[in-house]
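DATA SHEET
Item: assembly model
Revision: 1
Owner: S.N.
Input lines:
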Amino acid sequence: MTRLRAPRIHLSTVSAFALCAVLFVIATLHASGFASGDNVRQLLVFASFVGFAALGQTLVVLSGGMDLSVPWLMAFGGIQLSHWATGGMPGGAAIALVVLVGALIGVVNGVGVAFLRIPPIIMTLAVGGLVQAYLLSLGLLDSSGKSPVPAAAVSAASDRLGPLPIVAWVWLVVAVAVGLLLSRSAAGRRIYAVGANEEVARLSGIDVARVRLAAYALSGAAAAFAGVILAGYVGNTYLDIGQPYLFASIAAVVVGGASILGGHGTYWGTVAGALTLTVLSAMLPLFHLSDAGLKVVYGVVILLGVWLSQSGGELLARVRRRATISPEPPHSPEVTTSAP
Amino acid sequence: MRLLKVAGLRKSYGAVDVLRGVGLEARGGEIHGLLGENGAGKSTLMKILSGVTRADAGSVTLDGEPLTLGRPTASTAAGVRTVFQELSTLPQLTVAENLLYGAEPTALLGHVRGRRLRDQARELLARFGLERIDVDRRLGTLALGDRQLLEVVKALRETPRVLILDEATSALSAEDSAWVLGQGRRAAEAGAVVLLITHRLAEVRAHAERVTVLRGGDDVLAVPTAEADDDELIAAMLGRRVERLYPRRGGAPAGPLLRVSDLSVGDRVGPLDLTLHEGEVLGIGGLQGQGQRELLMALGGAVPWSGSARLRDAPYAGTSPKRAIADGVTLVPEDRQREGLLLADPVARNLTVGSLPRFTRPGGLIDAAREATAAAAQATQVGVAHDRLGSPVSALSGGNQQKVVLGKALLADPSVLLLHDCTRGVDVGTKAEIFTLIAELADRGVGIVLYSSDLSELANVCDRVLVMAEGRLVGEVPSGELSEEAILRLAVGSVPDRAEVAA
Amino acid sequence: MSTATVPVERRLRLPRPRIDWGIAVTTLLLATLVVVDLSLQPALADITQIGLLVQTALPLLFVAAAQTLAVLVRGIDLSVGGVFAVANTMTAVWVGAAGGNHQLLLLAVLVAGLAMGAINGVLIAGLGFQPFIATLGTWTAYGGVALMILPSDGGAVPLVLTSILNGTVAGIPASIVIVAVLLLAWRVLRTSRFGTQIYAVGDDEERARLNGTPVRRVRLLVYALAGLCAAVGGIMLAGATSTGSPTAGDPYILMSLSAVVIGGTSLRGGAGGVGLSVMAAFSLILISDIASAMNLDVWVSVAASALLLLVMVTARALVERRAEGRTP
């Protein structure tokens, strides 16, 4: 395996986009309709669901954590919206409020991880369970287990603005903003630093807890928003609507080249990961692969994607290993001469 | 007679040569002392013998036959047993499981016979007079001293051909040390080659028949202990100091800068008072682990402390590294790789990560141009080549890495700089550069608190030295009287009964 | 001998009562829930009824056991859901469709579980994948395999299996016997040399290696065993429901993780055990049983389980931090 230099130009991001492009070309060669405007728009909408779900996941993973509450926050986004809209709240206000509450739920995750030192997997699992319980307690799902969605969400997910669906525009703007946040802002630097080495970050004067809180809060907000547009697209919402996105959000992050250990990766990589996963699932039926085959290929692609972008991780691991066998052990007794 | 022969052993980590062709001859039936300053290569040599680390070149023979090394199991199979300074026992397992790890009494189907296991463990402990230790306790719940004793018991479970005591007594009370050394003697009497690695000259004098001195990765002296006096051994360990390692200082300390009173860190450190003056280099000395780390961490806001402090005329809170840095107090932590550097990140980012607010525009974005300029200027000040700014800091040598950590601290423009052993594992040239930098800073009025494990450093770089023992300040060596000897006398003399205890 | 004359040394040697609070809390939790459930449903105090309740718990118990193994070596196994589904659908489709030798075919299902676990082991121990990523990938892939075997719920589970599960051994319901066998097997493993190695690897990989432990081999075997356990879980569900489902395994992934953590097995590895997870898994089953006995909505038991997880893990984190604070 080759050793990567410091990823100033993120090779992993580039290769994730390349992978996506190759898949797209293969699919188009196989069925020319694949590149049609309608199909591409469709793909972008699908990819945006993953993209938003994986947005917060990216920030959390970069800061050295993991968010398993994403699917339940997505369900929350849809169901709570429907609940409030049915109660007469204007659609736009309801969407804003849902996203805000999503952020607050994310803060709860952050408090558990940052202050109570609960392992992220466990904290977000428990909070996800509580959100699930809350949604169940609403009990407003209609007889088919589904509840309707306000028009604002439907239009966000289905209407077009110029050549692209509205939601794709929103995604583009958000991606640019998050890209700037990570690559150009002090906050982004802090996220990477915390993910790379929490203790170094702390001793360098970074408020680690605040960084963590912010990452989980953004994750909650992004997941809730993903739930809103997903519900808008589907036209109604139900409890399990977010379930596929636990896997998809993490897969997009790692296929996009981020290290699951934190400190390394980009949101543009995640965008490429989301597109790749979407193109992959759209093209496999063309090759007469069933859902079953799709899932197998999915799993293998993730492992391959990680394998390919592992050079960076390999380097990290080697560096860490070297750190543990520094020439002199860090705690060797030091007075070199005994009493004269 | 049994003979362990090491010849031409080489090992380097990156650009640092730790062993440069070390040789060693040790005989069975004797305890062979191995002396050397920090960084001389003792630990690396032992790690190679015990199979933890692989040598780059060289040979090791026992009774003329080459030893297969490179894996712990291979060394163990060859009869080499090591009592590690860093414990090798597993804290979650019980005492019995640890003592007989890999040699558990099993029944037909591989089922460990619990009672037999405990009985055997008890027998083993009884053989060493340690019946008081409960074999069912989790090892991690035992006191550190007992854990170290169990390391010895485990190493001597079967009769070794070579027994290595790697700083095995450094964390022990005088009584326990004597016990460990007694076990070493017994092993020697049974014919084993016993290597005693220690930093205590007196221990070698009292227990070892022969001694080899390492310096800078080479063996520089090998004699029967009786034929060398202390001065000779110390001279061999220290070698001739590099000329002008320590620069001349211009100015003298001015008025008080940081005044600390009643500082305590938990029940481990303090209460203690100290005053740091502007332009002063204040040394902190003492044996290893007497609370120096906690003191520096507390001053830098990295661990909670109680007491009060004033920085110039304002109260100093030091509640977090963030606030400390904002107030002008920066810490260069002990372990540069785990506490100081983001190893995979480029040098430039490491330099600026401690001063992000300075490069942040009102909107939250970083002013990349200003950041790059500042990083380059800082690299110049600490002497890191500009073409390294973009490469990951892990690719740098230890000395350059340390310069980056220093650069990071200086970029925050501190008025108080806390240096924790900032020359450890650093080559001599870089050391001289760092000392020059320290002198320059002090001349500019920066107050510097410097803890070092190297006595000559304390004696030659500092304006005065405070000595710590068991968490308290036990004395001060003022500027006129600074010498390695004066510092050491305070360090070991202040705790007469437990002079050798470095808990 | 009067106590006054006992020399200090002797007194120190007296065995101090050692309570493992981790085990005590988990046991107490289970005991409390049992008492509550029994007081709500006196009819439960009957071995057949208990057998039925245990039968519903069997799949989770085995998946929790699998998850525990992975966590003990400082890992995680998300693929238990996939392995579970493959075993479940294999049982419902192939074993059910075949005439004759069901036992042998069930054995084949177990071997398949072992093999899938071994693949995880190779990815993690051999190729150096992060456990989370490796098993995330294989979870999906195995889930796809399950879909290939059985595209939608259905199939026919061999009667042999159902009748074994519903049968009794010496008057004791088979489900209880199966749990006893699981615990016994765990005990055998725990007390074997390999068992010690598992704990050593989870405790501190470097030190384990220093002591001559074949760290990679131990990891690989542990993941293989986890696959085996997850496969048994899938078979148990097929037997209990008499049908197969390609997605049946997924809910068990996070539930098993909950059970492991509630039970007190540390995510840092090296401490805990299958017995604890089994108790905790059974506690989770009891919570939903109690909720349904009290005619409470589903959400109550979901919330209770999540809160339980949160409370237990917070308490343990605080205790751990206090212990660390005492010996820094």
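QC remark: The domain at 20-265+274-318 of chain C is CATH 1.10.3470 (ABC transporter involved in vitamin B12 uptake, BtuC).
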